[in-house]
Design a protein that fits this description.
By secondary structure, this protein is mainly beta. The chain has 5 helices and 17 strands. It is about 15% helix and about 40% strand.
Length: about 300
């Protein structure tokens, strides 16, 4: 049975109260359920990509990009999803899903073609074909701050041309972050439950303050404050930047904190690890049509 609930722990409740949106958050939270409705299942089966968030074996959080032909992600029951192919071998989450236990997992399916997105959080376990996900929270988000793109090319994932690992941003990586109009962020709550979310804006909305620190403004959203609430309880976070024209990805792991000032919020992220995979994804997207909601 799909039972709506408001999955707010004390971290999210504290941020909602501080910003003055408790009533709005309570209303929006009623849309969150455990069941995958037919419209959500149909949406998933059309997607050529899925972003996930989880902790690696050392407890570091990462956000990763999974890709495949439409149908590689599909609902197999009212609360279960199969992800064909699993996590690529080069990815920092490749060994994050041992066979002897279920691992907390956050996912977000985002379609730049239609500016639609849905989030599905729960636990995952490996299967011979990839991953099996048990849903605990399923909900859609509004199209705010989503850039529209057309898909020009797609195929099966391939091994990356090169993988570079480090503990700080290189000059080229800093320029890529500054040019980004979209990124994804993985966080966990006080109970270890994982979440994957999206952040968008015009290029330059993400600042590089040093080789080990980036920051961005927290724009007004759906009033849930799931990401900021998680960070208030557990500072670990993982960021994913995608080069939409080449398929390259840049993953960052570290910690984040939120600075509150009158009428504004800024999230500051400290980098402790980086993984850059060049030309790893098979998807090629057009230049963006920026969201009219972008400041």
């Amino acid at each position: 049975m799909d039972t709506p609930h408001a999955p707010y722990h004390p971290g999210s409740l504290a941020v909602q109260t501080r910003v003055g949106v408790r009533a709005a958050a309570e209303h929006v939270g009623r849309s969150i359920g455990r069941g995958i409705r037919p419209v959500a299942a149909a949406f998933l089966e059309l997607q050529p990509m899925l972003v996930i968030g989880a902790a690696d074996g050392g407890g570091r959080l990462w956000s990763s990009l999974l890709t495949g032909p439409p149908g590689f992600v599909r609902a197999t029951g009212p609360t279960t999803v199969a992800v064909r192919g699993g996590v690529p071998a080069h990815d920092p989450l490749a060994a994050a899903f041992p066979a002897d236990r279920r691992t907390p997992l956050g996912t977000i399916a985002l379609d730049p073609r239609t500016r639609r997105r849905m989030r599905l959080n729960g636990t995952a376990a490996p299967t011979p074909a990839g991953l099996s996900v048990q849903a605990e929270e399923v909900f859609s988000n509004c199209p705010k701050y989503l850039q529209k793109r057309e898909l020009y090319g797609a195929g099966e994932p391939t091994a990356p041309a090169a993988v570079h690992r480090g503990d700080r941003l290189t000059p080229a990586q800093r320029e890529a972050v500054r040019a980004a109009d979209t990124f994804f962020v993985a966080t966990v709550g006080p109970d270890g439950a994982a979440d994957a979310s999206h952040r968008g804006g015009n290029p330059g909305f993400v600042r590089v303050d040093s080789p080990t620190e980036v920051s961005w403004p927290d724009y007004p959203g759906n009033a849930m404050f799931l990401t900021l609430g998680n960070l208030a309880a557990d500072a670990r976070a993982g960021l994913l930047f995608v080069d939409w024209s080449t398929g390259s990805t840049l993953q960052l792991t570290g910690t984040a904190r939120t600075e509150f000032t009158p009428g504004a919020r800024t999230v500051r992220f400290t980098v402790t690890g980086t993984v850059e995979a060049r030309h790893t994804g098979p998807l090629r997207w057009s230049a963006p049509e920026y969201s009219p909601a972008n400041p």
